[in-house]
Amino acid sequence: VTVGPKVRLDPGTIRKLAARLMGANPSLCLGPGRAVAGADAADVAEAIQVLNAVLGNVGRTLRYVAGPPATAEAPMEFSDFTKRAAAGEVGALVLHHADPLGYGSIHSDFVSTMASISFIAAFTNELDDTAHNAHLVLADHHFLESWSDVPTRPGRVGIQQPVMEPALTTRAAADELLVAARLLGKGSELPPPPFGEALRKKFQPKEIEEGLRLTEIDTVTPRLLPTALSKLPDVGGTPNASLGLSLVVIPSFRQLDGRKARSALLEEIPDPLSGFAWTSWVELHPATASSLGVSTSDVIGIEGPAGRCELPAFVTDTIRSGVAAVPIADAAGILPKSGFMGAGTRVKLSPTGFRIERPHPETVGVAARTPLARSIERSAKPLPVLQPNPSMYPEVTHPVHHWALAVDLDRCNGCGACTAACYVENNLAVVGADEVARGRSMSWIPVKADVDRGRGRPSVTFLPLSCQHCTAAPCESVCPTYATYHTKEGLNAQVYARCVGTRYCENNCPYGVRRFNFYDSSRTPLQALGLNPDVTVRERGVTEKCTLCNQRIRAGEEQAKLENRPVRDGEIVSACAAACPTRAIAFGDLKDPSSEIARLSKDGRAYKLLEELNTQPGVFYLARRRGEST
Amino acid sequence: VSNSSLAQIERDTIATMSKTSWRYWLGLAVSASLVGLGGWAWSLALRRGLGITGLNEPVMWGSLITTFVFFIGVSHSGTLVSAILFFTRSPLRAAIGRSAEAMTVFTILTAGLYPIVHIGRSWLFFWLLPYPNQRQLWTNFRSPLTWDVFAVTSYVSVSALFLYMGMLPDLALLARRMGGWRRPFYRVLSLGFSGTDGEWRLFEKAYPIFAAVVIPLAVSVHSVVSWDFAMTLMPGWHSAIFAPYFVAGAIFSGIAVAILLLSGLRRAYRLERYITAAHFDLLAKLLLSASLVMTFVYITEFAMAFFRGSETEQEVFRWRATGAYAPVFWSVVTCNSLAPLALFSSRARKNLEALIVIAVLVTVGMWLERFLFIVTTLARNYVPQNWGNYLPSLPEALICLGGFGWFATLFLLFIKFFPCMAISESMQSQHAREAMGAAPHG
Fold first, then answer.
1. Which of A55, A344, B345, B368 has a C-alpha 20 to 30 A away from that of A271?
2. Rg from Cα positions in chain B
């Protein structure tokens, strides 16, 4: 097949790419993700699978399983639905925690779709855009109050149990539907309400207890049909010469395709690379930015085929010149509603003359120096282990446990799940857009990005930066009230009640991981229900920081004591480690020689941040591997 | 000894206390309003939280700590200069000693407010003091802030005692000279000093002890304040030069403020006979020498940063001179290093207006200098991803101005209630001068 003209790449480049792909063995081709989930998505997916089949990856790096996909979110179905609704084929629409007017607009013009449906009922927890336009709004239980079963991945069904009594006078959507079915005379085919009882019957008690059902999965081996790739997706689009830059639509870690845009917690967590929180941004190469006469934080008007939006610029050499990259949710307003999403769309950029504030504005253009994130060649010798400098103080010992974190930089993709999990676990305050822009975010484990420009093109490494739990902690010696001290278990503890807020510790922390409560956090009684009862809410004027989830450590140790046994490795997990989807964060006891973390600490890639300052951190990192694998 | 000139000294000094012009009331009103504004701004911080300041992550110390260090610095020269002048038997002391000592006490009382205002839970400030309590908790004696508490409280106690002790003979005199409510007031305060030979003997024995204690204390207190910074491991703070640097800076700013106060007093109360051009000439020379020391320290700081080979520290200093705070840096250089060079000329030293302008520049320059080194180090710390800048907020600025108002109010009240010149010492030195003049050939 000749693809050259369609993708507008010169044959030399295509051959070079092909040679690299053939040279890597085994290899794996993956789709570009949600950003291309447009009308041609199926064709793109097909092309990718053909590539994998040709490269011989099937059965090696890739397995196909029988059965329906775990989650059905195909935009194709979505656009089919809007077509049927427009044709008058849809009489009623029941929405379950869905806001198609909010984030669905990326795929289609849902306003007219909704207008053509005569009855819309919305089960929801909040009055979002769609609920405002629904004919019937049914307040559903919160997910913490509901029963459900969710297929998470092939062979796994997660069983969700309520963990609390309903806080408000809501009713479970499933129960409502079951009751409605009975009233309609369809009850005989369905179990009687309540839905929770039905689920209890469906699963084994052991499965309910574990919250998980595991089933065998059937692997299938597909055959490559000669008719494959009969229709190549047209990724070219029609360039509009009057508009300047190519638009690249990127998915956002925080909002996915925009569905999480209403979450204050997720808005609060800055994008690790651009540093923007509470706002989206447009990414530009320095050359592009200078031709426009803008710099980072300048607000830019972006005019696309379907409309205009204004976003602050983020100038970075991690993107190529001549393009403008916008996270999906915000691209909705400027993209046409059909076609291969984003590709080929050209946009015109113009400075608006406004600027917005950004936390840590000095970060961009930082001169190179010893980076936080290190990398080593695969063939290189292990990183040296620095010995602690001599000290006039007695050596600090950890008699029983030495709790610590290890972060594998090879695995971290900067998603920020650890940050979000920490907010929830430790009752961190969400302080809002203005305060975050002032640099007063309360995050205990923000994700930092280190850009390595040493190898020709910039390469980004993400690094979650929590309290390092130093054995020779600079923050401890300077606190006049002993509000912070080193525990026998290796934690750098913070006693909130004893803190008067001199902020001396924050100044003397070379890692900058301590946070100050500038204001009292305000929570409605309903929001206060979301607080973790095992963790104090800090009052204004005190300093706080990562405790390594001390409450979880205590609970684990007490459980072990009750059962008269030592703590088992993996039994206690910090919230960040538990939430990490790539398992980049490991938590454990360095004193337990058989533990995962003790093993990692002996890894040749293990190093500690700013080791030369002799702070002797308990937290350590595993350097990224560079170069070809063998 | 001519009785008329001794009576003149007494009359002139008492006049500063009893005669009150509209200018005084205006000055008092302005100062008190500043205190009110600052107090209101502080109440904002107490009611809402320190979010009303411009502080952020990474710059957790800003203009409030700057003002603390500044006032501690200004406090320095007062007592120190007075004590040194006492030991050198300088005639200057009789004229300026009292105001300088009062300046010391009031600047420390001002400085001491700022750590309290600045901490997150001001209402628990006493937790910084080591006192026996039912929780059996002590302060952390490894923390330079604890040392600070000791240094500042010792300094304010000894300075206040030094001031009070030196005033005893004058208070006794005033109890006899002045009527109304002042008579019992001074009588009680004079502790029964009646001017007998025995009392004077004891006085002359005790006073040098205080003076001798004050000098090392003055040097130590500012060294200790400097260790708040030098004992950390932050680039630009962690430096052995900090203690002498702070002491020099303290003397420098203290002399500048002393020049301003004395010129004001002299003008307001026509004290040209006592605070002479020669006195200002001496102060100007002292200011110039302190300025040269400061310039030397600035150069040394940079040289050490680039000699030491720490990239982080080099970045801090490079950025200090060229980054976001470069205007502050060059203002500091202009005010503290360049402007005082004019004092090499005797014409500038003799020109009081020029001297006042330079003293104002130095005062501003020294505040900015403290601001500069505090903020730039925090703003450019070890982790570039954490870098960020800081600008004081309006309430913060008001709290700082309130401190200047507080100091001015205390000082203005002092000169109404207490003699701003040492009457008895002036008499002694007048006596000595005339005695020498009367017997030129021995």
1. A344
2. 23
| Of A40, A37, A109, residue with least CA distance to A332 | A109
CA pair distance A206, A320, nearest whole angstrom: 53
B137 neighbourhood in chain A, CB within 8 Å: 481-482, 498
User: How close does chain A come to B269, measured CA to CA in Å?
Assistant: 43
Residue B3: partners with Cβ closer than 8 Å, 6 or more residues away: none
Locate B133 and state its tokens. 């309590």
Q: What does the block give as tokens for B61?
A: 């110390």
Rounded to the nearest 10°, the torsion over CA B179, B180, B186, B187 is: 80
Does B380 contact A519 at a Cβ distance shorter than 8 Å?
Answer: no
The residues, ordered by sequence, that sit 6+ positions from A327 with a Cβ below 8 Å of its Cβ are A249, A250, A251, A252, A255, A280, A281
Angstrom distance (rounded) from CA B406 to CA B28: 10
User: Quick one: what percent of chain B has pLDDT higher than 70?
Assistant: 95
Q: Quote the tokens at residue A553.
A: 């450590």
Of A541, A521, A540, nearest in space to A531 by CA: A521
| A216's tokens | 């065998």
The answer to whether the beta carbons of residues B143 and A485 sit under 8 Å apart is no
Strands (DSSP E) found in A323-425: 323-327, 346-355, 375-377, 403-408
- Put simply, whether A203 touches B (Cβ < 8 Å) is no
Each residue's pLDDT tens digit, B79-123: 777 887 788 777 777 777 888 889 899 999 999 999 999 999 999
Q: Does B115 touch chain A (CB under 8 A)?
A: yes
Residues in B touching A518 (Cβ below 8 Å) = 49-51, 55
User: Quick one: closest CA in A to B313, which residue?
Assistant: A369
Mutate to test the interface with A, among B383, B387, B393, B396 (most CBs of A within 10 A): B383
- Whether the link from the prior residue into A384 is cis, omega within 30° of 0, is no
Q: Would the CB atoms of A366 and B311 count as touching at under 8 Å?
A: no
pLDDT of B1 strictly over 50: no
Q: Contact, A273 vs A262, CB < 8 A?
A: no
Those residues with Cβ within 8 angstroms of residue A390's Cβ, 6 or more apart along the chain or in another chain: none
Res A363: pLDDT: 58
Phi-psi region of A204 (alpha: psi -120 to 50; beta: other; left: phi over 0): beta
* A 454-473 near B (Cβ less than 8 A): 465
Contact (CB<8Å) B385/A363: yes
Q: How far is A437 from chain B (nearest CA, A)?
A: 10
Q: Three-state SS string across A224-247, please?
A: CCCCCCCCCCCCCCCCCCCCCEEE
Q: Which two tokens stand for residue A362?
A: 């000095």
Q: Is A515 on the interface with B (CB under 8 A)?
A: yes
Tokens 């009588």 — which residue?
B187
B194/A contact by beta carbon, under 8 A? no
> Distance, in angstroms, between A171 CA and closest chain B CA?
39
Beta-bridge partner residues of A620: A406
Q: Which of residues 370-409 of A touch B (CB under 8 A)?
A: 370, 372
Instruction: Look at residue B349 and give its three-state secondary structure.
Output: helix
Distances (CA, A) of B74 to A109, B111, B210, B222, B334: 69, 9, 20, 10, 19
Q: Do A500 and B234 touch (CB under 8 A)?
A: no
Residue A552 to residue A558: CA distance in whole angstroms? 10
Q: Are A297 and A358 a contacting pair, CB within 8 Å?
A: yes
Q: Do A541 and B121 touch (CB under 8 A)?
A: yes
pLDDT in tens, A574-602: 999 999 999 999 999 999 999 999 999 99
Residue B295 identity (one-letter amino acid)? T
What pLDDT digit, counting tens, does each position of A208-232 carry?
988 899 888 878 877 777 777 766 6
Any idea what DSSP says for residue A389?
A: P
A501 touching chain B per CB within 8 A: yes
